[in-house]
Design brief:
Layout lengths: L10 H5 L1 H11 L4 H5 L5 E4 L14 E17 L7 E10 L4 E7 L4 H6 L5 E11 L2 E5 L2 E4 L5 H8 L2 E4 L8 H11 L12 H6 L5 H9 L4 H32 L12 H8 L6 H14 L6 E6 L5 H14 L3 E5 L3 H15 L16 E5 L5 H13 L2 E6 L13 E7 L6 H8 L7 E6 L5 H7 L4 E5 L9 E7 L4 H16 L3 E5 L6 H13 L10 H10 L7 E4 L5 H12 L5 E4 L12 E6 L7 H8 L9 E7 L6 H11 L3 H11 L8 H4 L14 H17 L7 H10 L2 H9 L1
Parallel strand pairs: 4-6, 9-14, 9-15, 10-12, 10-13, 11-12, 13-14, 16-21, 17-19, 17-20, 18-19, 20-21
Antiparallel strand pairs: 1-8, 2-3, 2-5, 3-4, 5-6, 5-7
Helix pairs in contact: 8-9, 9-25, 9-26, 10-12, 11-12, 16-25, 22-23
């Protein structure tokens, strides 16, 4: 190639349409620059082998190993020509562990000739379990011949880069494509200010890109990683620092509670004293509310630490100051639940303008999309006149028709489910931008808070209120020990006989549409032996079988809102013994009499989600019990995840484990949308120091030059990070 392709050159022109199409569809790579920033996940040394014992289940892996044994089996098959089918079983080893490879049918001939004992190769495929042993079915492979230099030596030096790959595009093919575009690394504009780069002893960006893809030594890799981590941390923190700076320039109405107002009356009514943590966090919030620019604060804490109470006191402080407060919940079930618990906590203080309402009382209204026209009209009128000091609702609150008299505070529950347009639309409803308090249901390690919620100040509640009971958690290995599952249902019966209630959680709902999706998935994916358990089937089986005679009801997200609310009310009133539900009960549901939860197919939920679900029991004086049912083998990563959840009730510790086990990219929420994350090199948990330092540098640089006029390369890197989707993600927090 005579000329070096530019970084924004489409891969189609450089690699040809077929390869470019696969890279775009499966890896989200479109340009030469995208490919240069697709870094190796790890490196194999020639002559060294991969640790086969550590392979993660259900993931696409690339391993370097040696063939120990290869056997061709012939078996009777009606589908094969001449009625005989062939299966090639190859055992590969790293000197300690072994892994089975299997090839079928017409696919056996080439590997049968090439994969002879003693041969070294790179193998790529999806790890599955067959007969309780790990295997790769039909892996792609590339032989590592000592003599055929062109295979590896020319593009990998002594260290073989292993790239994040897919079934359609193996690591070694990505390596060869990189060989073609690597000269373009020289064109990379350096986003780091020179003083910062030199002050920290970081190599220039072009050099870092060359060293990450073609290292000659391990020191090359370390130098490149240190530099590329800084880029990621710094560019992201500049984006967040600019948001903080812009928010600090906005005006807001200071809101200070009256000494003898509704907040004081509410505190007098509380049947318990606030924890030290609740008092401290409330003071931080009140100090923010009293300033003349908008509060932007993240309130996070342990499951059950009383975040709703702290948020309610903030809302009452704003009502005291003549303003209104809105609380946004992600689902109708949760909005109704919040409305119920807020009105219960406030009692007569929530009956403003009604007979029996207290002197300082205000109105607390609910506004959701499915409300009847009359009730909705009423609620809208109460908001427009200022009669209602507090409104709780779903994103229906953001619609054009909703007018506030004087919106002073927005509390967003489960922030990450709200997008940029929603936050802006709510901002526009106040006379000046309202103060913002974001509550997150699961604890987040400090580094993640700095990265994901970096435009917010953070308050942490780490004490549980007095009177919360301990929760015992156990894994129930349904496949190895079926009698354990039978015992789990006996435990549910025992709790119900004591007058308590139970939850059973399933991963899916189980109507036709759902079943079709699951069938399609399991047809495509031989490793998945059955679709996930469903609420409707499980409720029916339990009511007929192990829990016969108990009052069993189902709850899921596709029910009509009134039906959902009716089921929740019956459960809260003790008229239902066992509630079989999807994760609609994950957040905010508060039934102190529920003491036991059985989570079916628990391995299909994330660590934070399991911790969140578990927080629904043990909310009263009786101890809670959470049983995590799984069919996964003991050695699998999924089982280890469940063991971690069972072993600790510390949500901050679990969120660390969760992040360490998931791919780093998920941190910024990109896993859900299937696009690439901006974090390719930065390990949010391990790189705390880099993130904290990058935040300081970013804040300093933005304060001196908010529009980055003196740093055009940084501006360009920022624009690339903040394409539309990233911008939205940052806005969501």
């Amino acid at each position: 190639m005579d000329s070096v392709p530019a970084l924004d050159e489409p891969l189609k022109k450089v690699l040809g349409p077929a390869t470019a199409k696969v890279m775009a569809e499966h890896l989200g790579l479109h340009t030469v620059g995208d490919l240069l920033h697709h870094y190796p996940r790890r490196y194999e040394e020639r002559g060294q082998l991969t640790h086969l014992a550590d392979l993660p289940m259900d993931e696409h892996v690339t391993v370097v190993a040696q063939v120990a044994d290869a056997r061709l089996h012939t078996f009777a098959s009606s589908r094969a020509p001449r009625g005989k089918g062939q299966r090639l079983e190859v055992t590969i080893t790293d000197g300690r562990g072994r892994l089975q490879l299997v090839f079928f049918g017409a696919g056996v001939h080439k590997p049968h000739k090439e994969l002879l004992p003693g041969t070294r190769a790179m193998f790529a495929g999806k790890v599955s379990v067959f007969n309780r042993r790990l295997q790769l079915a039909h892996p792609a492979y590339e032989l590592l011949r000592e003599d055929a230099e062109e295979t590896v030596e020319t593009w990998a030096g002594a260290l073989i880069p292993i790239y994040p790959a897919t079934a359609k595009l193996e690591s070694w093919k990505i390596g060869k494509a990189l060989q073609t575009v690597l000269p373009s690394a020289q064109e990379a504009a350096d986003p780091l200010p020179e003083s910062l780069r030199e002050g920290r002893g970081l190599v220039p960006l072009p050099e870092a890109l060359l060293k990450i893809h073609r290292p000659h030594t391990k020191a090359d890799i370390e130098e490149a990683r240190a530099r590329l981590k800084w880029d990621e941390a710094f560019v992201l923190q500049v984006a967040l620092a600019r948001r903080r700076y812009a928010d600090a320039q906005l005006p807001a109405v200071p809101r200070r509670p009256r000494p003898d107002g509704i907040l004081a009356a509410f505190d007098d009514r509380l049947p318990f004293t606030l924890t030290e943590g609740q008092r401290k966090v409330s003071e931080e919030i009140f100090a923010d509310l009293a300033t003349d620019h908008p509060m932007h604060r993240l309130l996070q804490g342990e499951v059950g630490s009383g975040k709703t109470l702290v948020a309610l006191r903030a809302m009452l402080a704003v009502v005291d100051a003549g303003g209104q407060a809105a609380m946004l919940a992600p689902t109708e079930v949760l909005a109704q639940q919040h409305h119920r618990s807020v009105t219960e906590m406030m009692g007569e203080l929530a009956q403003g303008g009604m007979l029996g309402g207290a002197e300082n009382a205000t109105k607390v209204v609910l506004l959701t999309g499915s409300m009847g026209a009359a009730a909705r009209r009423h609620a809208l009128l109460d908001l427009a006149t200022g009669e209602a000091g507090i409104v709780i609702g779903t994103h229906a609150l953001i619609e054009d028709k909703v007018q506030f008299h004087d919106l002073g505070l927005v509390v967003v529950d489960e922030q990450h489910r709200f997008g940029v347009e929603q936050r802006d639309a709510l901002r526009g409803k106040g006379k000046q931008p309202p103060h913002l308090l974001v509550m997150t249901a699961t604890p987040i390690p400090r580094t993640v808070a700095m990265t994901v919620f970096g435009d917010l100040e953070t308050s942490v509640l780490d004490q549980l209120p007095a009177g919360r009971s301990p929760i015992a958690s156990h894994v129930v290995p349904a496949a190895d020990k079926p009698h354990f599952l039978a015992r789990a249902w006996e435990r549910v019966r025992e709790e119900v006989e004591k007058g308590h209630q139970a939850y059973v959680v399933c991963p899916r709902i189980g109507d036709e549409e759902d079943g079709a999706k699951a069938k399609k998935k399991s047809d495509e994916d031989e490793a998945e032996k059955r679709p996930p358990l469903a609420v409707l089937d499980t409720a029916e089986q339990l009511a007929r079988g192990p829990l016969a005679g108990l009052r069993v009801e189902a709850l899921h997200g596709r029910m009509q809102p009134d039906d959902k609310d009716a089921v929740m009310r019956r459960f809260a009133a003790g008229e239902v013994d066992v509630l079989v539900a999807t994760t609609v009960i994950e957040v905010g549901v508060n039934v102190p009499n529920a003491t036991v939860m059985v989570i079916m197919d628990a391995d299909r939920f994330g660590v934070s989600q399991l911790h969140q679900l578990r927080g629904r029991v043990g909310r009263g004086s009786a101890p809670g019990l959470c049983l995590l049912v799984s069919e996964m083998p003991e050695a699998s990563a999924a089982r280890q995840r469940l063991d971690a959840v069972a072993s600790t009730l510390d949500g901050f510790e679990l969120s660390r484990i969760d992040l360490e086990q998931r791919r780093e990219g998920d941190v910024l929420g990109q896993a859900q949308s299937g696009t690439r994350s901006s974090l390719r090199m930065l390990a949010v948990i391990d790189d705390e120091e880099v993130i904290a330092e990058a935040r300081e540098e970013a804040t300093r640089i933005v304060a001196a030059d908010p529009d980055l006029e003196r740093l055009p390369a940084l501006r360009t890197a920022l624009d690339a990070l903040l394409d539309e989707e990233r911008e939205q993600y940052l806005e969501k927090g």
